[in-house]
Task: structure prediction
Amino acid sequence: MTAEVKVEEKQVESEVVIASAVVPPVEETTVKAVVEDEVKAVEEVDGSETKVVEKISSFKEESDFFSDLKDSEKKALSDLKTKLEEAIVENTLFRKKKETPVKVVEKKKEVEEKAEDEKKSEAEESPKEEAKTDAVVTEEAKAETTEDVVQKESPKEEVKTEADVVDTKEEVKAEIAEEEKKTEEAVVTKEATVEQEEEDEIVDNDIELWGVPLLPSKGAEGTDVILLKFLRARDFKVNDAFEMLKKTLKWRKEQKINSVLGRDFGEDLASAAYMNGLDRESRPVCYNVYSVFGNEELYQATFGSEQTRENLLKWRFQLMEKGTQKLDLKPGGVTSLLQIHDLKNCPGPLKKELWVAIKNAIVALQDNYPELVSRNVFINVPFWFYAVSTLLSPFLTQRTKSKFVVPRPANVTETLLKYIPAEEIPVQYGGFKRDDDTEFSKEAVSEVVVKPGSSETIEIPATETEGTLVWDVAVLGWEVNYKEEFVPADEGAYTIIVQKVKKIGSNEGPVRNSFKNSESGKIVLTVDNVSSKKKKRVLYRYRTKTESSC
Result:
């Protein structure tokens, strides 16, 4: 079996999603062999064969305001609220309404039918017995001259037959009574068991999910938002959404999710996924960094046993719970997260335990945290990712797959900028966000476009005679010539070179520099686009620090 991978050559504006593309033809023989081995390894884990992943249209998050819903959606929401209200109030959310078990009912019915048949049989036997008695009397009258033995035995046989009939009736009645007694005992025993189970599944009217009351009659703002998430996850099929909600509540109880929040899973896992910043819609952003599992010692500690793999899942659930605590689950509020998955230096498909864990996590999160992720952006994806994605695809709903965005490696920063402002993107991904940054707070980020084969300058005023200028600069894709100068306001003064001209490659991150001036003037940043075909986007921000502001 071959699994060839081609990288889809679309511009980033089309928001490349998981498709049937894979690798360029460079070193085709070697790539093909590696992909075949790795895909085979994944197939052994999953038991399925690779197939082309269909292209998915871009997802657009819907409104949670009732007035914005379609009529059919309004009705579905109303029906679900009615079902949920009834289930909570009548305490049937986790069980069916109290009723006699089917098997017991069938047994009782069988006994009743048997009793009825016996009655019919008695009714049919009565005329026959009477006719038989008459016949015996007549025969006795004719045979008065015969031996006394015949006259003596005939009455005996008649008495014996009547006794047998009486005994049979009594036996049947006794059997019926015994069966009814057993049936009643079985019903009582079964009902007692059911009642005991029901006691264990009692639902409080104050039941909540992610801090939001679920009982519709309480009138909480977030109840509709939560229910809409389950409805959308099941295409507004009320019964399916209701069952999904019940399963989620049971799952949370079985997994003891409420107790997971307080657990300490160690620093190693903390670096594998974390919340950092907000996107353009004020959603919390969660970064998942798979390269940490490239450390063999950590890998074995994380995936070496069933218990450690279970801990990994619990840790992932903990992170999701922490994310939901940052949400504002009400109409018009922030009701979902943005997920970034960094696959740079991620262990390949040969690390079976990792990909089984990823599949299990995806399924659990999809089934129990519906519509709490607005998008999943996969960055720095290796060529084999496209083959692996085909194996994960069967476990994902169409709606989940529509939220996947997979940019080309050269367009990572540009793609992230569509969803996250530059000041909220970590520096390792081409943005300006640094840990414990004290140089900048809420300074605005500006942008300049440099046309192919041309140059642009950025001027930062230095109005103070004494102060310190600090600036950040990022060029998407770089591959430009760049320099920094301080130009004094006094025309007779000399220009000071802060950073001499240098060529910056595509792998360069944002530049931060500073200059302490002793006279007024300006900082001039020059970006020379050496490309003859592609324009460059330059992002920058600056701040002037005086002694009073330091």
Notes: The longest strand covers residues 536-545.
